[in-house]
Design a protein that fits this description.
About 60% of the residues lie in helices and about 0% in strands. By secondary structure, the chain is mainly α. It has one domain.
Amino acid sequence: MSSLQDVSTPSVQSRPCLSWARHLLTGVFASLERARTRRLLAQLDNRQLSDLGISHADRINELDKPFWR
């Protein structure tokens, strides 16, 4: 049995290019999700904001942020 070879696939850590690309894509998708949820937040009326416990000032502060934060 000592003649068995390791045929496992390399991990992401051993492939820095894939790790970098995965990190980049994760960041892009997170930014798109933040932009989507902020668009939805902008559409809420005062009653819906009150139901969620979000003040008008909190909403304005969130909507003023750039999509990457």
